[in-house]
Amino acid sequence: MTTLRHYDHDGRVRFITFSCHERLPILTNNVFREIVARSIDDARARYGFKLLAYVIMPEHVHVVIWPRTESKVGTVVGWMKQEAARGIAKLLREVRSPLLDRLEVTRDRVKKLALWQRRCFDHNCRDAASMWEKVEYCHKNPVKRGLVRDPSRWLFSSFNWYQGVLNVPLRIDAVLA
Fold it and tell me: How far is CA 55 from each of CA 9, 48, 66, 70, 168, rounded to the nearest angstrom?
């Protein structure tokens, strides 16, 4: 197995993607998306990163964060995923969703529910232009995928915040030039 290299502790903005187990479209309703948004916000409070952009898609999540220098991004993302999984799994169990069978895995000889793929993808933004490119990527993702024609119609994205709308699932942190 190839070990992915993470470059922590360098003070750079990070573009992070984490995907649902087997890329299943689990995040197809606003209740599940709100749980993910809350887990991102709780992680921000816990780990002190700045949230610069995000989009919650049906089978994956993108965030652009500026972590504290002492933070390990893997720990931050792991906490986000764990908190979201806990809330979504609880709801799936309450309604006895048939999706539960598809999410059951055996890891280290223990049966578990796997809402997320084990790893995440992260990219260090080398400069402001790279950061804004990733912010724009987040905002265009639902349009590119054909989910909406206008990015303002995808509610679980930071696009509307950047348009001056304050009633959004997640507020974005100010970026100093």
Answer: 25, 20, 16, 25, 12
For residue 48, the SS3 value is coil
Residues in the chain: 177
| Residues β-bridged to residue 51 | 65
**What pTM value is reported for the model?**
0.91
pLDDT band for position 107 (cuts 50, 70, 90)? confident
Partners of 19 in beta bridges: 60
Sign of the torsion angle spanned by Cα atoms 174, 84, 69, 8: negative
Which residue carries 């309703």 as its tokens? 29
Q: Do 51 and 38 touch, CB atoms closer than 8 A? A: no
Q: Tell me, what's the pLDDT at 1?
A: 44
CA atoms within 13 A on the CB side of 159: 20
Residues near 177 by Cβ (< 8 Å), separated by ≥ 6? 128
